[in-house]
Design a protein that fits this description.
The protein has 271 residues and is α/β, with parallel strands linked by helices. The chain has ten helices and seven strands. The protein has a domain of 176 residues: Rossmann fold, CATH 3.40.50. Helix 2 crosses helix 9 and helix 6 runs parallel beside helix 7. The termini are far apart.
Length: 271
Amino acid sequence: MTIRPVTSAFVSGLLDPMSWRKYTLIPRLMWLSLGAPRAQNRAWERYWQGIGSDGEVLWETDEPAERELLTTTLRRYADLSLPIVDLGCGSGRHTTHLAELSPRVVGVDGSAAAIAHAGPGDFRVADITEPGLGASLHAELGDANVRLRGVLHLLDDAARRAAAANIADLLGGRGSLYLCETDHAGDPLDLLYAQGARLTGLPRVVDRLVRSGVRPPRRFTETDLGATFPSPPWRILQHGTTEMYGVPLTPGGPIQRLPARYAVVRAPVTR
């Protein structure tokens, strides 16, 4: 049987055969995302414009276990006299914690509406896949460490390579990259189903993303890690499995715990 392509920006590319239950989500996803922009930069802008001052963002929870892994790993591998650049920082909620580790922290996100939610600090609007961004930041900051949380799992392979090229320029010869990305088994429909999405409705924090046209994340496996940062010339100093945390899907419910992968990576010397 041939399945015709689905026109919805959100649903497109989700049809991997597995349990039939997840396919019951498709009609509702299509309806919710009608009229949403297909271009992901516009979808993200729409999403962040819809977040009020007290609005909940799916991935913005403050879980000590996740912060402890970041802190311990950076202290072990990174030269913390260098600046830290938080690529894909969103509203900057997690960026503020990095100020405890480095004398200078810069947050970068492609959405102006997201940066508008950020508090005091050095925050910039820029596309992390834009050629030349890493070199431009390096010219200002010198060698820097980079934190990347939940960004690569949203990018296609070409965009991942473009982001990696910018990271290489930004790290220079002394910087270290710390990344953490979700690695949920199955395809994006499986993840949505695990997050409580049903034909009858979606959790509010998930519903907002779908209505904005934001595509769900892909897996970021060990194979993806090696493909994005191939060795040589990259050096993967440490990697392993962990968890990423999200806000409760229902009021008063438990914090989300998503299977994830973390790594510390050093760049090829590009200058």
